[in-house]
Amino acid sequence: MSDSQVHLTRVAAARWRLALLLTAVMTLVYVGFILLIAFDKPLLGTILMPGLSLGILLGFLLIVLAWALILIYVRWTNTHYDHRVAAYRRERKAAR
Amino acid sequence: MQTGEPNFIAMAGFGLFIGLSLIITWVAARKTTSAESFYAAGRSITGFQNGLALAGDYMSAASFLGIAGLVALSGFDGLIYSIGFLVGWPVVVCLIAEPLRNLGKFTFSDVVAFRLRQVPVRVAAAAGSLAVVAFYLIAQMVGAGNLIRLLFGLNYETAVVIVGLVMLTYVLFGGMIATTWVQIVKAVLLLTGAFLLAMLVLAQFSFNPLALFEEATRQYGTGVLAPGRFVSDPVDGISLGLALMFGTAGLPHILMRFYTVPDARTARVSVAYATAAIGAFYLLTFVLGFGAMVLVGQDNIRAVDVGGNMAAPLLAEVVGGQAFLGFISAVAFATILAVVAGLTLAGAAALSHDIYVHVFKGGKASEQEELKVARGATILLAILSILLGIAFKGQNVAYMVGLAFAIAASANFPALVLSVFWRKFTTRGAQASILVGTASTLLLIWMSPTIQIDLLKHSTAYFPYRNPGLFTIPLSFVVGIVTSLLAPEPSALEGFTKLEHQIHLGDEEEAH
Q1: Which of A12, A74, A92 is opposite residue B93, by nearest beta carbon?
Q2: Number of domains in chain A
Q3: Which residues of B149-175 are buried (b: 16+ CB within 10 A; e: fewer)?
């Protein structure tokens, strides 16, 4: 295995770990939100300030969380993963 | 609002949109000369463009009119749906978008069949795709018929035929290039329309959404900001949530869009743009829903349409007059057309690329031949969707959209994930997973209260839950894994090394 291949394997494994972690976070938080809706409706109906209930706030934060997770993944892969792939691809081209 | 009365501005806006989209189609038709341009727009769409087009494919009339109506009539409960439609996107970008782009050519079956035996996998995967496309298409056509009847005063059948024919024109002549640009125009129109409408509403509340919500609680009680009857059973709630979440990652017309970009990085970036647009849109819908609740009034909304589907158009009339109502109506119409075109193209790809080329022709068909069959399949699907739209007149569209998401999550998503991540997955495993996922979803929905009690008027149902996802998604995974372990497939195991390579580097022949 060449150096760039080792780097690629390593960064690829890190990418899958990140992808699985982010997917798990989204799933757990979302399922948790639904469980709260199912089991404690009055809690989510708590009025925090006029016009804002806890449920509305959490719902808004969930949309923000989905944005944030995608941004984390895209930024990480754009900086750490893509240039490893490019390096390996260059090496293969040179070897041919 | 006088429903069923032709609105001149709506007609003009609607005519303008059709004119513009036909010009797009005419330009696109001249570039549509190969299977690659027909299915994948020559892989020349940029990340930003594909992001908007994904948003255009995903934001259906159901989400614009349906969710605004749901929020207007029941407050917080509408938010549950909006969130469900958004949380699937991190899954799409993390697990699906890049492998799909690097491993496949035109359909998601390309990925499942990558290292497995072509014929059996293609048949199963095409069946899964077509089932999703069929139910989604019926829902959109029925929705279109009702909506156009309310907005423009055309009768239901005429409306369905018009939608079918205009969509056929886009797809048949302009293929993916025309479909993509129609999606982009639609997404921009829809976001602009929703934004303007939300601003006109918020202008009356000194641009403070909380002041709007507070006014809603003053008129209808604080209950509108709390969960209502929508998620009454935790199992049903989670089941629906999982289907919405993982179904997004199994919708053939969404997956197909990742082939229109040049590489995996662009595919990934396009999801970020798409989610920004879709999330912003759902936040706006929320303002529209509460705006309609406060400024139009729940009784007035129900008086026009019991389901609340006219909440957003009514609101447009109250805050912006006839002209703005016309604009919003034309936007709603464009929304339906674009989604229907995307679905038809995905269905045509499953029929021609998966079934005709790989099952009947052993993967060896000339570009021209494949293009011809794809166009034939498009005509067939357009006729079928018009007939189904008319046959299912009066059906509840919400449960058919739910059904489409449930099948996508239980049939397509597990096979896709297993084929990319699990070395020991086999042809039999893929077949079993997709077929059991589809069949169990259809069966459980047939046994559910939605069909047995609501539709057939029986007193009890065989299965207590309305949403099967919590059971069928794990079932499909388990069946796929157990079947694969029972009979290992050496060639599939070997092929995984090539898959692991190509998942990062893409098809190296394509790059040359």
Answers
A1: A74
A2: 1
A3: bbbbbbebeebbebbbebbbbbbbbbb
